[in-house]
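User: I'll paste a sequence; please echo it back and then give the predicted structure.

Assistant: Echoing your sequence first, then the prediction.
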Amino acid sequence: MKSIFTDSLKLLVPLAVIFALGPVFTGNQSLLMELAVFIILADALNIIYGFTGYLPFGFGVFFGTGAYGTAIMITHYHFQPLAALPVGMAATLVLSLLFTPLLRLSGAYFAIASLAAFEVIYLAVGNTSL
């Protein structure tokens, strides 16, 4: 049986190669960063769906919360990007801790509850009256 650590390590090595050799082939650092972010997102989805079997319809909420928190710190509070990353990570951690009771559910119940949680966050972020 494969472990989560060895599977993540198999994805970490290509990611390190991309970052090491990427600037040699292209000068577009934004493209390399976006590629790395989506590789990490795919690895996280592999852990939650591939190893546990939970079908997370609202998985993008956690990805978006980290990006949203980081972007707010960069644009409004003028943080440097590396200094803003822990804030985005903390925002995602707080949100994920709020939704840990969903992990008690299984099967279709978990899928429906994760979709409902996604809609709640979507409406909260999209509410412009706040």
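The mean pLDDT is 82. Helices lie at 4-25, 29-51, 59-75, 81-98, 108-126.
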